[in-house]
Design a protein that fits this description.
The protein is of the alpha/beta class and 284 residues long. 41% of the residues lie in helices and 12% in strands. The chain has a 6-stranded mixed sheet, sandwiched between helices. A hairpin with a 3-residue loop joins β5 and β6. α8 packs across α9, α8 packs across α10 and α10 crosses α11. 38% of the residues are buried.
């Protein structure tokens, strides 16, 4: 399975980021807490250069709490604040707002000493598609400011949004990168829904996800699908899940596509458990 997806609007987004950066005080980099490594666009470092940065580990409610804490420590050791966030409950959002002002406090005080008028702290939020950017912006703003959807790439163009406190945020569309050199990265993005299912072979994708989960999370599969044990192969496990969920078509054949969609939807919704697919140790 070879995955490569870079719609034309993402090239425009990259140019937009570079163009608007001169107006920005701090960058919020939004990552998926389940795949903090794979959901990082490697081009972002090059684009934002030396701007102050706050990392937001979104969808922390779907990720392993222990693994998320390790990622927070990893970024702390690099001198970067990482904040786990759950946009549904609002957990972490207050800290996100406070950190936006704190990280540029010295800069803003220096401008005041030079006689400049006080102004809002300007923030740029960047992240890959479908990482929950629009939902979080709406929570931070306290109103529906950004268009949301469960499909990658809903946000288009640019929007300046007033947040709670003395903050203004420039929203940008999600951006992937032109070529996935590591297909494992591409797979994890597809597992979490950052790449449209419409361009994927969902049967093969679900098999790959089962293969990943069988390595460290077989108990989660067994509990969710009422299995005594997982199968010897991902295909056997998938067929056991199909049988458990009644995904049988005429003639007694397994409905692989329906089963695949169930598995992908339930993983993305956290119903198989709070699962993180990457650890900081993998970087080394």
């Amino acid at each position: 399975m070879n995955i490569n997806w870079f719609p034309g609007h993402m090239k425009k987004t990259r140019e937009l980021l570079k163009e608007q950066l001169k107006l920005i005080d701090v960058v919020y980099e939004l990552l998926d807490a389940r795949i903090p490594l794979s959901s990082r666009n490697p081009e972002i470092d090059e684009i934002i250069t030396n701007k102050p940065r706050v990392v937001i580990l979104n969808k922390a409610d779907l990720a392993s709490e222990d693994a998320t804490n390790r990622w927070v420590t990893y970024y702390k050791n690099k001198g970067i604040t990482a904040i786990p966030v759950n946009t549904i409950s609002g957990k972490g959002l207050r800290q996100v707002l406070a950190e936006g002002e704190a990280v540029v406090k010295e800069k803003m005080e220096a401008l005041l000493r030079k006689g400049r008028r006080e102004r809002a702290v300007r923030i740029m939020m960047v992240g890959i598609p479908n990482v929950g950017k629009s939902s979080m912006i709406n929570k931070l703003a306290g109103k529906k400011s950004a268009q949301t959807g469960d499909r990658p790439g809903v946000t288009k163009g640019k929007q300046w949004i007033r947040l709670k406190g003395n903050l203004e945020l420039l929203d940008t569309p999600g951006i992937l990168w032109p070529k996935f050199e590591d297909q494992e990265v591409a797979l994890k993005l597809a597992f979490t829904g950052a790449i449209r299912d419409q361009i994927m072979d969902v049967d093969s994708l679900a098999l790959k996800l089962i293969e990943h989960l069988m390595k460290e999370h077989s108990k989660n599969i067994e509990e969710r699908y009422s299995l005594a044990a997982v199968g010897e192969t991902p295909l056997e496990t998938m067929e056991m899940i199909a049988k458990s969920r009644g995904c049988i078509i005429k003639g007694g054949e397994f409905d692989y596509t329906r089963t695949a969609n169930i598995i992908l939807d339930e993983f993305r919704g956290g119903k198989i458990g709070r699962i993180t697919l990457e650890k900081p140790s993998e970087i080394e």
